Amino acid sequence: MAGLVLAGAIPHLGRMRDAANRPAYLDNHATTPVDPRVLAAMRPWWEANFANPASIEHAMGREAEEAVEEARRHVAALIGAEAREVVLTSGATESNNLAIKGAARFAASQGTERKRVVTLVTEHKCVLESVRDLAAEGFEPVLLPVGPDGLLDPEALRAALEVPTLLVSVMAVNNEIGVVQDIAALAAIAHEAGALFHTDAAQAAGRIPLDVAAMGIDLLSLSAHKLYGPKGIGALYVRRRPRVRLAPLLSGGGQERGLRSGTLATPLVVGFGEAARIARLEMALDEGRVAGQRERFLSALGAAIPGLRVNGHPERRVAGNLNLTLPGGVDAQAVMAAAPGVCVSTGSACSSASIEPSYVLRALGLPEAEARATLRIGIGRFTSPAEVDRAAAELARAWDTVHRRAAAE
Fold first, then answer.
1. Region 6-34: what's the mean pLDDT?
2. The Aminotransferase class V domain covers which part of the protein (predicted)?
C-alpha cells in the first residue's frame, strides 16, 4: 500500500523514460546530464550529513564545510585559480549579474569617471540585460558587432576602448554557434585601456582549457550543469591580485567573502566540485570522442540533406557544437515537431519562449528566413554512436516531410 501511495504522490513518475525509450539527446548546450560519478559524490550530503556548512560549532557542520572547500579547490583547479578566488553562486546567470553590476556599482561608489561597459551583440541574454540595466544607473552600454563567422575583430574592441571604459565582457564560447573567442588577446586589449575583463565561460569550462592567470581574466562565470554537474550551482572567479572589487547583489549573512550571502547547498557544491575534477582530468578524451561523433552526425545529415550549412567559424569552435541552417526555406520548429524522437533546439534555452528568430544568427547577417531554418546541435560526453545515427536519420526524414509539405502548399 505504501508503494502505491508513493507512486500516486509523484504524478510524473510514469513519464520518466529509461535509456532505451529516451529520445536521442543532442541539446548539450542547454544542459548536460549529471555524470553518475557526480551523483554518487552528492548522495551522502543529502542523506548521511545534511548539516549547514556554516555550522562549524559541531562536527557535522565542520565536515560539510570541508566538503565545500574541497569542491571549491576542484573548481579553482579547472580554471587555474586559487580556491579563495572562487565565489559560489546559483549559476552563470547570477555570476554574470554579480560580475557586471557588482563591478560597475563598486566603481560608482568610488567616484569613477569610467562609465562605458562593452560587450558583444551575441552574448547570452543575462549579460546583455545586465549591461543594459546599467544604463539606468548612468553607465554607457556599448554592444559591439561580430563578423559573419561570429568572432570579434580585436580592432573593433580597441576602437571602442578609446573612450575610458570600466569593463569589457566577452563570452569565451558562444552558446548557440559554439565559436571560441581569443580571450587572452581581448583581455590584453582591455587591460591596455585600463578596463576590467570578464568572460562568461559557462559553455567553455570542461570543453576547452582555461587559465585565468595566463589569459589575463579578471572575472569569470561558471555553471555546473553545463559540465555534467547539477543545476542550481555555479561560481564567479574574482581575481585577488591585483584585487577586483565588487558590490554584492544580495544582503545577508556575509557568506562567500561577503559577495554572495546565503546558505550553501552542500550536495550541489560537492557535485560541482566532482564535475570540475572529472572535467579537468578527462577534457582531452571527452573532446576527442565528441569531435568524432560530431563529424559522424554531420556526414550522415549532410549526405541526406544537400545544401546543409554550418554557421560560425569552421575551426574555432568547440568540438560538440553544430549550428545548421536547413535548405529549402523550411521552418526549424516544424522540423523539430516532425522529429519527436530527437532533442535539439533552435537556440538558447533562455530565449526559447521568444517567437523571434535567434538574435545571434541575425548578428551574423543571416536573413530572418534562414535564421528560422536553423537548428542548434549539442553533442556531449554521453552521446552514443547509435543516438547520432538515429538523430541524423530522423531529422533527415523530418526535413524531407516538411520540405515536401511546404512545396505542395
1. 69
2. 25-390
Q: Do domains 19-35+283-408 and 39-276 have the same CATH topology?
A: no
Q: Which cell numbers hold the place of 144?
A: 559591439
Nearest-CA neighbor of 70 among 271, 254, 228, 212? 271
From CA 41, how far away is CA 113, in angstroms rounded? 48
What would the mean pLDDT of 96-117 be, rounded to a whole number? Answer: 98
CATH level 3 topology of 19-35+283-408 = Aspartate Aminotransferase, domain 1 (3.90.1150)
Query: Does 126 qualify as catalytic in the annotation?
Result: no
> Given a cut of 90, is residue 93 above it in pLDDT?
yes
Give CA–CA dist 72/84, Å, rounded: 8
With beta carbons less than 8 A apart as the criterion, state whether 392 and 297 touch: yes
CATH number of 39-276: 3.40.640.10
Given the residues 10, 135, 350, 407, the one annotated as active site: 350
Distance, CA of 176 to CA of 172 (rounded, Å): 12
Main-chain phi, psi angles of 253, to 5 degrees: -80, 0
Predicted TM-score of the model (pTM): 0.94
Give the H/E segment covering residue 236.
strand 234-238
- Tell me how many degrees the CA angle 244-249-255 measures, rounded to the nearest 5: 80
Determine if residue 257 is left, alpha or beta; phi over 0 gives left, psi from -120 to 50 gives alpha, anything else beta. left
User: Other CB atoms closer than 10 Å to residue 313's CB: what's the count?
Assistant: 18
Domain extents for the chain?
A: 19-35+283-408, 39-276
